[in-house]
Amino acid sequence: MRWIPSREDLLQSRWLSPVAHHLQDDRLWHLERGCVARAVAIGLFFGLLLPFAQFFAAALFAVWLRAHLGVAAGATLITNPLTFAPLYWLAHRIGQAVLGDPDDEAAADAVSRHVEAAAAHQGWLSAAWDTVQDAGAPLVVGLGVMAVVAAIVGFLAVWLLWRPRKELPDHLP
């Protein structure tokens, strides 16, 4: 906790001074059911949708939608070095299913032959870039589907599991 800056430190930062007036809303800092639910949805959405600048996009939208800033930024960590490959593989598979791309060994062999042929003519880096571009549409569609579904599920999970505290009476009978 000592490495995490306090709210006051952030508001006094010279780097954040142009936007500091936007960061003074209490909903950005208090753990309330609606703010946290929105923050989880925002963080999961941008954590899955964007391969870079997730943190900044989530923070920007958290300020705009008045969601908890720290939770939104933390929820983007759904994609990290351990989860990146499996999530992107799953996104590609979902994208293939949505787009109706073939999913068999013949297609994989064709891609392999394409990479080898392209590498022979234009070099490995260029061939790898072409392969990534060929895989791009299913990946983008799959990431979009996963981001929307994760945001909805995350929002609903927080909203349904968060139990408001019951106020205790001032006096006990």
TrEMBL record:
<keyword id="KW-1133">Transmembrane helix</keyword>
<feature type="transmembrane region" description="Helical">
    <location>
        <begin position="139"/>
        <end position="162"/>
    </location>
</feature>
<keyword id="KW-0472">Membrane</keyword>
<dbReference type="Pfam" id="PF09835">
    <property type="entry name" value="DUF2062"/>
</dbReference>
<keyword id="KW-0812">Transmembrane</keyword>
<feature type="transmembrane region" description="Helical">
    <location>
        <begin position="71"/>
        <end position="91"/>
    </location>
</feature>
<dbReference type="InterPro" id="IPR018639">
    <property type="entry name" value="DUF2062"/>
</dbReference>
<feature type="domain" description="DUF2062">
    <location>
        <begin position="18"/>
        <end position="165"/>
    </location>
</feature>
<protein>
    <submittedName>
        <fullName>DUF2062 domain-containing protein</fullName>
    </submittedName>
</protein>
<feature type="transmembrane region" description="Helical">
    <location>
        <begin position="39"/>
        <end position="64"/>
    </location>
</feature>
